[in-house]
Amino acid sequence: MSIARVFVNDVEVGSLPLGTYKAILSATKKDWRLYIAQALNFLGICSSVFLRTLMVIPAMLSVVLVISIFCFPSLLIENIAYLKGMPISDLFSGLRTFFWRFWFICYFGVLPITMFIPYFRNGVGFKNHFGAKIGREIRQLLEVPSEGDIKVIYVDPADDK
């Protein structure tokens, strides 16, 4: 019979029958409240990233302006002269399109970084509600302290012989 060894902070604290661990996993996957909590967490992350990109846009535009002043001054002068000759309605429409596209690039450039690089996950509020629920169940079953990362490894005793 296979067992699931439980480690907290890389220290083995106990073991469970594999069937018990699989039952905890299946019960967690059936809990609809966790899906709602995870979806709300994702919406919170998206709104956090949205606000962060709004805060970053002025800084990024400043950097782009400084780079264009030093690296491409003639192109900047040509663009300013072109903008001076445009009607106000076209200028406003063009600036609105420019800022919308610039924000879109910032948003979808920052979102993957914050979601998939572990260093940034806690900064935007990423929480794995499924892992937390499984961890709570295992801690309650094994009477393990509630601090530290839980790692579970499947072991087949027949392989040890």
Structure description:
The chain has helices spanning 18-30, 32-71, 73-84, 88-116, 118-121, 129-142, 157-160; strands spanning 3-8, 11-17, 150-155. With 161 residues, it is mainly α. It has one domain (3-160). It is elongated and about 80 Å long. The mean pLDDT is 82.
What is the CA–CA distance across the termini?
A: 13 Å
**Could you tell me the number of beta strands?**
3
Name the shape in a single word: elongated
Mean model confidence by pLDDT: 82
The structure class reads mainly alpha
The percentage helix is: over 70%
Q: In percent terms, what proportion of residues is strand?
A: 5-15%
The quaternary structure here is single chain
The total count of helices amounts to 7
pLDDT < 50 runs, ≥5 residues? none
What is the rounded Rg?
26 Å
Order of helices and strands: EEHHHHHHEH
Report on the biggest sheet.
3 strands, antiparallel
Main sheet: strand order: 2-1-3
Quickly count the domains: 1
